[in-house]
Specification:
By secondary structure, the chain is of the alpha/beta class. Helices cover 32% and strands 23% of the residues. The chain has an eight-stranded mixed beta sheet with strand order 6-7-8-3-9-10-12-11, with helices on both faces. It has a four-stranded antiparallel beta sheet with strand order 2-1-4-5. It is built from twelve helices and twelve strands.
Amino acid sequence: MTQLLNVQNLVTSFRTSSGKVQAVRDISFSVSRGETLCIVGESGCGKSITSLSVMGLLPNNGEITSGSIQFNEQELTIKSEEQLRRIRGNEISMIFQEPMTALNPVFTIGFQLMEPLKIHTNLSSAQAKEKAVHLLDQVGIPDPGKKISQYPHELSGGMRQRVMIAMALACSPSLLIADEPTTALDVTIQAQILELLDDLKNEYGMGMVMVTHDMGVVAEVADRIMVMYAGKVVETGTVEEIFNNPSHPYTRGLLASVPDIDDTSQKLKAIPGSLPGLNEVIPGCRFHPRCEFATEKCIQDEPPNFKITSNHQSKCWLEQNKEVTVNANTDKTSH
């Protein structure tokens, strides 16, 4: 598969009143055309900041401190804001969290949907409107000719999410980043949105990065999984490898917290403790304060990346005697 996105040793920091803190810590990953990579982890682990770093949409106090982000062999970290604007919404698009608030309430659906078409294409207003109606129809919105003149508050949450997807796909991007695209939607709508995204990914031949904490969503759409904890990548692998043979205790904890519909008597399992603060210094493995398998080595030394299979890697000392070590300074998944 053709590689679309290649992130290497990315560090994203924020300036705060207590000094500079790192939200994303030396992570590496890649995405190929036609592939879906799911980034999973608890809220606050750095999933969304990773996506915003790729898009060049960090808040004013955020910056990429070091590392490389290559899209179609173009280095994005050195591009100007004007150059990034030509890429955003055109070659790379993003579906943002919270469809209930992501759309501007004072503009019609049609106005917001036509905006990227006018910026990135040579379509006339009439042609852009025709394309906008087609996009709404493509994402399954009934009576798109009428909906285009309505305001966001006149649509349900599921319909607004479909509008967000239509906006992201307006210019036929090569890479789609979907940040919690099913948040706050009921289960039946979630299933429809996931099926729609998968169909459109195959139709457009896109690569897709799906950011989520929902392991059910991951099982539905992922080709590969990247598990993040406290700003770091702790495990990567294919969906089959992660679900059938999870290596890192954190990954096991995430999977164990999913309820078993076949055993209603079983109590839900929870990972003890909580994520460390961004400015909290934790020696060794950052997960060790919450890990039932932690040893003295885990407390003292940060684990490197251990190779389990050609596509499966884990940053856990439990794997030390099982396989050879991959480059300790990178989280890159082999292909």
